[in-house]
Amino acid sequence: MTTLPTTAKAVIIGGGIIGCSTAYHLAKLGWTDTVLLERKKLTSGTTFHAAGLVGQLRSNANITQLLGYSVDLYSKLEEETGLGTGWKMNGGLRLACNEERWTEVKRQATTAHSFGLEMELLTPSEALELWPLMDISDLVGAAFMPTDGQANPSDITQALAKGARMAGASIFEDTKVTDLEVENGRIKAVITDLGRIECEKVIVCAGQWTRSFAKRFGVNVPLVSMEHQYMLTEPMGVPGNLPTLRDPDRLCYYKEEVGGLVMGGYEPNPIPWAVDGIPEGFHYSLLGSNFDHFEQIMEQALGRVPGLQTAGIKTLTNGPESFTPDGNFIIGEAPELKNFFVGAGFNAFGIASGGGAGMVLAEWAKNGEPPFDLWSADIRRFGRPHFDTDWVRTRTVEAYGKHYTMAWPYEEHDSGRPCRKSPLYDVLADAGACFGEKLGWERPNWFADTSRGETPKDVYSFGRQNWFEAVGREHKAARDAAVVFDQTSFAKFALKGPDAVAALNWICANNVDRPVGSLTYTQMLNDKAGIECDLTVGRVAHDEFYIVTGTGFATHDFNWISRNIPEGMNCQLFDITSSNAVLALMGPEARNILEKVTRDDVSNDGFRFGTIRTIGIAGCPVQALRVTYVGELGWELHLPVEYAEAVYAALMQAGRDHGLKNAGYRSLEALRLEKGYRAWGSDIGPDHTPFEAGLGWAVKLGKNIDFKGRAAAQAQKSGGVKKMLACFTVDPDVVLLGRETIYRNGQRVGWLTSGGYGYTVGKSIGLGYVRNPDGVDADYVMSGDYELEVATERVRAQVHMEPLYDPKMLKVRG
Ligand SMILES: NCCCC(=O)O
């Protein structure tokens, strides 16, 4: 009879690879009173039927690092535990069968180089030498990553479980979690059919069962079970050292197994499973093989591996796996419930991610923060649309179907749209808007001039895309006249209460205790002085602040602020995103236009840069913020949604004689790059401090006010930095997209965090950190000779530490 402990530091729910890896790492970190509970047997959920490929390269440096950690761990786990893992570092091949895919593969190789991974380009015949079973008649080229590999999913999980036990963790199989005890918004205990365990942290690694389990406690985990099939052939003389192979143009992957081949794929019409809930008793269970559905993948594979025509098929495994709406996994502490952690939704990368995901989950649970920025996989990246199961399923079906399709620059999702619409959606659509989508919001990306025969639809490529000229027109209007951006999707919060100023001044790096009517640009830092939030704060009353942040950061920033209000302080945070529309009027003509529609004083003296006031426009009380993200004179106009059409119409009419144009997010991006404004999530984030990012001027170290992250910020200000954000320009015909490698005096020193084009300066622009373990300052940055690697080619680059456009801020303050 199993006797559960009555207390534990951490309880992990789920005995698949992620749960076992988390237990392994928590125990190694010294939390030996970690308990893992598995409802049935280890691996019996999804792990046992995973294919077991371990690839490393992703478009995000830290996720690539996490996967690289898995490879390092798997390389030594067998020796440590004495259990076989099936780990083989045979390398991984990726094929390209057309010129566009070849460009994508070359850009991926450069991304690999940026992140410090070896990835070699091969001719078709060189690829054939590594993978002699394939037909290469349609091949343009291939890339080879020598450190990729494959593992046996069940064996590697058992080895992690053994390693966890060896380090002191306890693992209980056949133990069902029936409930959680929650007290004051945090986890108190886990209730099982064999007893109660009081604990500090719960980490739910229950695979596709995670969504319904978490929902019982108000936590949203947007994942969907999808049927995924792969076949295994009878032995056909496949050598044991065969690299894994990804053939994205044919949607297929391959690996060697006992002398045969595993072959699976990602069909464009996947089948969601268990839409109304996973049946009781579904463990060590598979779905019936669906040969008809697999035929489309099989047909493609036969073209690549002719030997499959005569190979016997041993099994066609149809196992449901968790997929997510954006193809990234879901990790971190739930915003809805303290001490409730999630590691789920691994999109068929569970085995590749297992080692690293367990490591980061363990560190996050133990230390209260992840070891590095995991924003692209963070559970707080989701928002309102992700609560709706139908919407999540629709979007996830699209994401699954695009698993191997070309990842085009600027690609937008097609499904589940339109979902959240600004009140101006129809008006802007009539004006030629081509919309993009973020967190469900439809947002104009650019405006087609339909009178010239332009169509508001993106045509994707790796070169300049069809919207390039249209965005250039918007850019020019912003610099020479004025534009209006519909930025209604901005997340907006109100913080109210007698302690609002004290609380916010603790959370913000900049000083927000300024007179009513002041606007403050500020970061919010973690204890390492990493930038957790980057936002604008307006003091609208003695005891009230209006906070504006990016569309995609609504859940994250709300959670960060509310969790960091010091205990006992009397103030409340409200999400008022849906109450207010936002029109940003920007450009040298902005004042002339605004003066025509308001009786309020908007002169330079009457309405200074960096202030917020209420003005009247078209019968509407508008909160006007004199601020800019494009480097021009301008105002963000925040107004109750019901006035949006009237205020927009008044502006457009008044702007007619001033060259006012609609503009979208693509020109906003080009404008901000010229000005060197940083974007959270790419140029700045938890791995970057204000001093590294050139934002030290916004940190209140000169004031005697304590704030979160102050000690680390102070230490870095005194000790100096080891990386520094710089701007790079290259010839206009070089397309920069981000992740291009930066070389200083021939040495790799970083990669671009953003890339784009500056229409005023007529150059391609990138931002990125220059790293040096011995320390970096502006002189060091400026004294180097720079090249960028773009799709494996090196190009000369100029470096800049000042904004390319209006470095003295004359336009903004004028
Ligand atoms: N579970 C299949 C993984 C496929 C891939 O790594 O591309």
UniProtKB/TrEMBL annotation:
InterPro entries: FAD-dep_OxRdtase (IPR006076), FAD/NAD-bd_sf (IPR036188), FAO_M (IPR032503), GcvT/YgfZ/DmdA (IPR028896), GcvT/YgfZ_C (IPR029043), GcvT_C (IPR013977), GCVT_N (IPR006222), Rhodanese-like_dom (IPR001763)
GO molecular function, one term: 4-methylaminobutyrate oxidase (demethylating) activity
Residue ranges crossing the lipid bilayer per the database entry: none
EC code(s) of this entry: 1.5.3.19
PROSITE patterns named in the record: RHODANESE_3
Organism in which the protein naturally occurs: Roseovarius litorisediminis
Keyword entries, A-Z: Oxidoreductase
Pfam families noted in UniProt: DAO, FAO_M, GCV_T, GCV_T_C
Keyword flag Oxidoreductase: yes
PANTHER family per the UniProt record, alphabetical: AMINOMETHYLTRANSFERASE, SARCOSINE DEHYDROGENASE
Gene3D superfamilies membership: Aminomethyltransferase beta-barrel domains, D-Amino Acid Oxidase, subunit A, domain 2, FAD/NAD(P)-binding domain, Probable tRNA modification gtpase trme, domain 1
Protein name: 4-methylaminobutanoate oxidase (Formaldehyde-forming)
Sequence ranges assigned to domain Rhodanese in this UniProt record: 644-689
Family: Belongs to the GcvT family.
